[in-house]
TrEMBL record:
This is Anti-sigma F factor. Keywords: ATP-binding, Kinase, Nucleotide-binding, Serine/threonine-protein kinase, Sporulation, Transferase. One of its GO terms (biological process) is sporulation resulting in formation of a cellular spore. The gene is spoIIAB. GO terms for molecular function: ATP binding; protein serine kinase activity; protein serine/threonine kinase activity; sigma factor antagonist activity.
Length: 148
């Protein structure tokens, strides 16, 4: 089974809740556990918040795009912004690192995404934007298909 959805919205903090609820609704037919649902919602929240706060940094008119793909029981999520990008991805992914200490940012966005999802990849280029790619297996079936 394969199912896809794409949505685009203004890069404003008020849309973070919209993003998390939309992705949660999209995966609901997979009957995720409360923990799986919470993990996905938290990871989406963190990715969208990073796009709004760090990617666009107050620049008006920015958009965030979320692409979701379900293949069998694996959820693939991309959160995309065309903002300022990340100069040093490795440094940005370190726990407690933040470029916005004045906003009381904890520096735990990427570590939370990494902890709550099964796979995380960040692709970014300064002045071109960032793509956060995440995967999460939903349910208790095996990752490996039985060979017949």
């Amino acid at each position: 089974m394969r199912n896809e959805m794409t949505m685009e919205f203004d890069a404003i903090s008020e849309n973070e809740a919209f993003a998390r609820i939309s992705v949660a609704a999209f995966i609901s037919f997979l009957n995720p556990t409360l923990e799986e649902m919470s993990d996905v919602k938290t990871a989406v929240s963190e990715a969208v918040t990073n796009a709004v706060i760090h990617g666009y940094d107050g620049i008006e008119g920015g958009k965030v795009v979320i692409n979701c793909l379900i293949e069998k029981d694996v959820l693939h999520i991309e959160v995309i912004d065309k903002g300022k990008g990340i100069e040093n991805i490795e440094r940005a992914m370190e726990p407690l690192f933040t470029t916005k200490p004045e906003l009381n940012r904890s520096g735990m966005g990427f570590p939370f995404m990494e902890a709550f999802m099964d796979d995380l990849e960040v692709i970014s280029e300064p002045d071109k934007g960032t793509i956060v790619q995440m995967k999460k297996k939903i349910g208790c079936t095996s990752w490996i298909e039985d060979e017949e």
